[in-house]
Please model this.
Amino acid sequence: MLVIFLLISFLTAFSHECRVETKEVIRAVYGSGYVKSKRQVLLRASVSGYIEKVLVEEGDRVKKGQLIAVVESRGLENRIASLEKRIRLLRERLGPGSEFLKALEGKVKVAKENFEKAKKRYIRRKELYEKGIIPRESLEEAERIFKVAEEELRIAEETYRDRIKELRARLEALLEERKALERELESYRIKSPLDGIVFKVFVEEGDYVNHIGRENRVAVVGTLQKKVVLNIDEEFLPLIKRGQEVYIKSDAFPDKVFKGKVLSFDLKSDDLRRVVSVEVDVDLPPKIPVDSVVEGNIIVDRLKTTVVPLRAVKDGEVVLLVNGERKRVKVGRVFENYAEVLGFPPGTPCLFPEGR
Model:
């Protein structure tokens, strides 16, 4: 790649008159590259397994979060289904009016009734003993029965609280386990991270994907808006600035030139090719293929100079007619169809060499 010079009039026919002319010259840096989506994502499987479903085709438009493909996950789904049953059973047991709660509440109720009876009996026996009606042994027996009933009530109430607490803890643990499995299940469902279009699908139903290595590629999804990435020789990077005009040619549209501007550029050169990537913002047709090859010229500056047709140059010199006399003049820079001649006004005649 070289810094090249272009003339604004390069599309016009050559003049039949050989005269010094003033032309506007464009100095440009050439680069070749490719078309990219403005945002493009390679979707990879993060788990290993067989592809159960492929839900899109190349060219399909997709929404963010839309399902692209599903990796077989029956083992995980069965575990989640088993958890669902256990969660449902615990919720039923903890629900108002459940048979499980009724049984626990019934034990507390019986223990409470026994406690109240034993308490009344003890109070009555104490009154009779204080009046000297019953012996001390009867009072002590009533007190013993009362304390046993009191302990049984405490155990029944504590058992009720502990069982409820235990069931709630088990339910919470199962819910957390289900949540973790559902998160894991999400890794088996490959979704689009953006609104865009499916550029490439790498898998079919029944294919095996391995989350380690290239075998984990599923699809490429990108936005409809495209950009161009040009590679230029690293030595020309100091000439590149953001906002510079860029003219792009594509084999897909050979008769068109697309105008864009420099959006950004890398400050690190490719270690092997010694080139730098320049990102170009350009309005491209929707049908231009992503990853297709393009060429571009980045406009570095524009200048006006005096030139003669390149056909008039021979051995690096041109013959000018100055005051009616022939004068051999060395030319300067050579452009596409012209050569630079300095120091002579526009309109100065020149002569074509014989045979031209």
